[in-house]
Amino acid sequence: MTLTTSRFIGHDQDRGIVQFSMQDGAKQIACAISTSAMDDLERGPRAKPNEREAQFTRLRDRIEACTGRKYQATEFEGTPPGIVLRSIDFRG
Prior knowledge:
The chain has 92 residues and is an alpha+beta fold. The chain is 32% helix and 30% strand. It has helices spanning 35-42, 52-72; strands at residues 4-12, 17-24, 27-34, 83-85. The chain has a 4-stranded mixed β-sheet. The chain is globular and about 35 Å long.
């Protein structure tokens, strides 16, 4: 099944990630992207903590496309299993 947009959860400054979710039908998939990856995608100055949600919104299409590829490849991490995106996932 194809993933669809779900929701922005929030920025965890201590862990350096933005958490969000995607949907596979009725199943919610926990996802995260490193703030470094988002900054690398924008190739500009590092975003401030209060700018992370807007940054995620600007990059959402690219983030969700990469999430979908990792989901199809069953590249889950953690407990409960989820998708984690890093800068390396956007290379190539």
